[in-house]
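Lecture 7 notes: from sequence to structure.

We start with a single chain of 257 residues. Read the sequence below before looking at the structure.
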Amino acid sequence: MDTMTLWGISGWGFAALAFAALLVGFSKTAVSGANTVSLAVFAAVLPARASTGVLLPILIAGDVLAVLTYRRHAHWPTLWRLFPAVAAGVVVGTLFLMWADDAIVRTSIGAILLLMAAVTIWRRRTADADDDPDGVTTRAGRVKARSYGVLGGFTTMVANAGGPVMSMYLLSAGFRKLGFLGTSAFFFLIVNTSKVPFSVGLGLIDGNSLLLDAALVAFVVPGAFIGKWAVNRINQRLFEQLVIAATIVGGLQLLLR
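Now the structure, written as tokens:
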């Protein structure tokens, strides 16, 4: 079947999806959380449930490019502490998708994103200094990692919207720019890949969605190169502000749609 006819996509609709795919590449190598805009575009052009299945392979392609770019900067102690909680969140998200309608999903995730952004802004204004990422070895650090991990797993499963939640966690843990991007790259490559069987089981990924992915994935690559070029020109403070701003925009667009 011609991918342009899938779900009745018009030429303008395909152009919007291509731009969103390019933005995925940019977000994976520059401003994590910016792909909430991609989530909104995909959900606007495609049926809401179908959009999550089409977007997932696009995100995985972006994750692969991000890992290739920042693989030396990942903080593995943080990743190992996050994964069990994220797995629990993915399972909860799968169960949630079995009964929740689109309105409930959007409202829940939008509220979570705005809450995480507010907590992060408040914490960074009241803290004397950033935490060391090794702080995840403390009891408070482990509790925080588990809490954000469950939320991240839940939001990434129900709407591919785990990026802003994990961005808020990594910022709150005091990660610098490259460590943030390297840790985030490996995290989402592993988590998004693990979501594929669940998405197939829910009927979110099928032959039609993969046909459309084949037409869109090429747009991820230039976005990743643009992101790599841009990140070297963004200072740490601006980087953090952009990540928080992208999270707030993503939360608002989910609540207001």
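The two ends are 31 Å apart (CA to CA). Keep this in mind for problem set 3.
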